Amino acid sequence: MSAQVPSDAELLQAQADLWRHSLLYLTPMALRCAVELGIPKAIYNLGGGATAAELITALSLPPSKLPFLRRLLQLLAASGVFTADDATYRINAVSYLLLDGVPGDDRHIDHTAFVLTATSARYMDAAMDLAGWFKKDVAASPFEALNGATLFHESMESLDADFHGAAKAALEAHDNLGIEIAMREFRDLFEGIESTTYICGYGDDKFARVLVKAFPHIRCTVLAYPNMIDAATKKAAGGVINYVEGDMFSSIPPSQTVVLKLILHHWPDEDCVKILSQCRKAIPPRKDGGKVLIGDIVIDYSDSKTMLETHLLMDVGMMTMTKGRQRDENEWRQIFMKAGFSDYKILKKFGARGVFETINNPGKSSTNLFADKSHTTLHNRSTSYHGAPTTMSAEANTLPVPSDAELLQAQADLWRHSLCYLTPMALRCAVELGIPTAIYNLGGGATAAELITALSLPSSKLPFLRRLLRLLAASGVFTADATTYRINAVSYLLVDGVADDDRHINHKAFVLTATSTRYMDAAMGLAGWFKKDVAAPAFEDVHGATLLHESMESLDADFHGAAKAALEAHDNLGIEIAMREFRDLFEGIESMTYCCGAYGDDKFARVLVKAFPHVRCTVLAYPNMIDAATKQAAGGVINYVEGDMFSFIPPSQTVVLKLILHHWTDEDCVKILSECRKAIPPRKDGGKVLIGDIVIDYSDSKTMLETYLLIDVGMMTMTKGRQRDENEWRQIFMKAGFSDYKILKKFGARAVPSDAELLQAQADLWRHSLSYLTAMSLRCAVEMGIPTAIYNLGGAATPAELITALSLPSSKLPFLRRLLRLLAASGVFTADDDAATTTTYRISPVSYLLVDGNAIGGGDARHINHASLVLTAASARSVDAAMGLAGWFRKDAAAPPFDELHGATAIVAAFPHIRCTVLAYPNMIDAATIQAAGGVINYVEGDLLSFIPPAQTVMLKLVLHHWTDEDCVKILSQCRKAIPPRKDGGKVIIGDIVIDYSGSKAMLETHLLMDIGMMTMTRGRQRDENEWRKIFMEAGFSDYKILRKFGARGVFE
């Protein structure tokens, strides 16, 4: 075997990494909890900052929940959902998006629905079944395979109307944030457009309405599926938009420009080519100004690790939910070329998205990459804005309004927070499929194609497996070079059987338990738990049984056994390393009592007496925990005593508590330590207590801090225990009667001796496995109204203020603090501390998007409440789909067509000179909408696959990412037909996601989370620039450009 064996340091770090990977879902779960509790709103209402105690009061939470709330807030703060200073948690850009309305900021859109949908049970269930899906040769996405209905389709509406509505609201928040900003950023572009066709997607014509208002000279056509645009919507447009019903795969109304805003990432490559081919037909030659503008995700591998991870999370999400995907520039390029475009350009990065521009030119071959047939340009979302308000106009609220750049970045951050549970789901899928062992058996490195063969997976799953692996590589589970994925220290811990390495412990049970439905259900119930004044943890409250207790064994023996195996792997890695690291310490010990805890695992004692036979060792265990076979195997060198450490600990020179105290409350820890103190001799006679446990260190790396806080929120959810920082440990020691202590050595994620890197790897694995708790915490915050509460409190609030504002039980204050600190760490809020050790949480651009629109008022036209996006992304249906990814991978079936429809209405408001037509499916635009447009928008019923009304410009705003590549080509081909030649200004403007692997880690993660979400729910996908390019070329465009990055999106022309 040529796979390199990790060193002690690497192995311990790997365990820490594995913890982080497995527990990363706790970040979205904590986010969900905060949303459900209304924490952002409460902090806002408390002036933008609040302590956990204040939130307990404001939210009317039970006072008993205060310590738990603190832990929740701490994790959220560490994750960047809030900011924190000392004990005060504040609204930052992320939590700003979770406020229920922000007066004076028309850009604000409440993203609560997005968080709750992204962290829903339906999403989670689909993700949990990924491995099964990979093994089945089925076309349906994991979401469809599990739910028997397609995301956003009428079949889903019939199955679960509430989820369907929330999902649509989530999509609207996702797609519409930044439209007003785009009007300013691309003023020169729009002023040069005479006509445009906007591909409506899901019946939302806001982009078109804003366009024609801002540029009234533009003749705007909206192409929508039949019945997607109702009469009211058409009437509201005032006749300035031409609404055409049709199918972008069949025909796109001609115009100078076709716009695809967040459309193509919903479709596979083949469909994208079809769409782009139609776009190419719809626009005039390049010399007449014909172009296609595409706003979509572009994966950039050179982006920051956070942005890259975001992009890849989105991609895996799309893989789980839809047939769509996120693409890098090369993948975009291939699509463009296949669609007949010879060139393209990325105009600008726009947040997490890029903007492509395609410009039509006649007389050249549509198959020549550099043929002068058509041109595409990617526009990327801007990082600055002009003309937006700088402060909110709400009475008594001086919370600064995020800039355009902050708001767009906040949306990308919110996507990542809501979708990062897909990382542990992808990890679970890899474990269930046996990918680590397969790579190891192939010499330590393998391509996706080799894994398909080795694992006997359907060949049709190859492109999906590549997407899964690139997310796991970006997250650090594997390493990658070119197309080969290799075992690293983290995945080494997931290999079945490693010869000649007695340190190795397989952590599969930990990953599968940490990402199980029972854990997920408990995490998703956090908001309800916060509102109840009950002592039991959320896990026990939901299941009626205690984790690792005989009550759980009676309820679910299989889960109980897996949970015990997970705990053994968690606790025992590194014991042999500790014997070497602390040889001098153990050689000086004459007698020792090892407290076995509640699980009957005596491995530490057995290894100790083997390494140091001079030590007289006693093991204290609960009655019947140690069986006769175990005692006999010890060979008589260990004295086993049955008892209860709360009542009596056998006397010895040293008492050892290894990973015991973090399972207990502070009061119980004091009782245990008091018994330890009685059991040992005075200091002068060598009496001591050795404690191996987690020590939260706020000065540690962001990754390690996030791991600590994820574990803490996980323990808060599952048990009565907690993780502690050094000051909290000190208080316990002093209360137990000890006068002094010292930290001997950091031991990976623990403050005990060992190889740091191996333990760091374990911490990373925890984070990856529990990261869904970030999305669940975000959902919780949205459901509770926390962004709006903080906003209403002036943009900053302490947890105590939020308790009051949200009418939460005061007992939940400590828990609210914990929820907020995680969201702040994730960037949803910002947090700052004062001298009184009270953390204030503030609205960030992200949480600004979650503020209720009623709170914001009409002062910020850019604002769109994204609460529905959060709630949909974290919804039960979304979770169910994500948890079903493994099963979906096993099926070789293609997902059904994705029939979601996007819309546009903002253009006409910003540019009244533009003659705007909105194309929508029949009955999608109601009469009220048409009336509200005031006659300035022409509403056309139709199908963008079949026909797009002619215009100088066709606009596709967040449309193409919902379609397969083939459908995208069809749509773009219709766009091309609809627009005049380039010389006459014909163009297609596409606002959509562009995965950028060179971008920030957070943005890439957002993009990839969205893609996995789309994979789970729909047939669409996120794409990088190369994937966009391929679609454009196949649709007949010869060129494009990315005009600008626009938040998490790009804008193509």
Give a structural overview:
This protein has 1053 residues and is an alpha/beta fold. Among the domains are: 422-501, Winged helix-like DNA-binding domain superfamily/Winged helix DNA-binding domain (Arc Repressor Mutant, subunit A, Orthogonal Bundle); 508-569, no CATH class; 587-754, Vaccinia Virus protein VP39 (Rossmann fold, 3-Layer(aba) Sandwich), CATH 3.40.50.150. The chain is built from 52 helices and 37 strands. The strands form 6 sheets. It has a 17-stranded mixed β-sheet that branches. Strands 1, 2, 3, 24, 25 and 26 form a 6-stranded mixed β-sheet that branches. Helix 5 (66-77) packs antiparallel against helix 36 (702-718) and helix 16 (269-282) crosses helix 52 (1025-1034). The protein starts with 7 loop residues before the first helix and ends with a strand.
Summarize the structure.
With 1053 residues, this protein is an alpha/beta fold. It is 45% helix and 19% strand.
Any chance you could write out the topology, listing elements then pairs?
Layout: H1 8-21, H2 26-37, H3 39-45, E1 48-51, H4 52-58, H5 66-77, E2 82-85, E3 88-91, E4 106-111, H6 112-118, H7 121-128, H8 130-134, H9 142-147, H10 154-159, H11 161-176, H12 179-185, H13 187-191, E5 195-199, H14 206-212, E6 217-224, E7 229-230, H15 231-236, E8 241-249, E9 255-261, H16 269-282, E10 286-288, E11 291-303, H17 305-321, E12 325-328, H18 329-338, E13 343-350, E14 353-359, E15 375-380, H19 404-419, H20 422-433, H21 435-441, E16 445-447, H22 448-454, H23 462-475, E17 478-481, E18 484-487, H24 489-492, H25 508-514, H26 517-524, H27 526-531, H28 538-543, H29 550-555, H30 557-572, H31 575-581, H32 583-587, E19 591-595, H33 603-611, E20 616-621, H34 628-633, E21 638-642, E22 654-658, H35 666-679, E23 688-692, H36 702-718, H37 726-735, H38 756-770, H39 772-784, H40 786-792, E24 796-798, H41 799-805, H42 813-824, E25 829-833, E26 839-843, H43 845-848, H44 853-856, E27 860-866, H45 867-873, H46 876-882, H47 885-889, E28 905-906, H48 907-910, E29 914-920, E30 922-925, H49 927-932, E31 938-945, ...
Parallel strand pairs: 1-24, 2-25, 3-26, 4-27, 5-6, 5-9, 5-32, 6-8, 7-30, 8-31, 9-11, 11-12, 11-32, 11-34, 12-35, 13-15, 13-36, 15-36, 19-20, 19-22, 20-21, 22-23, 29-31, 32-33
Antiparallel strand pairs: 1-3, 2-3, 11-14, 13-14, 14-33, 15-37, 16-18, 17-18, 24-26, 25-26, 33-37, 36-37
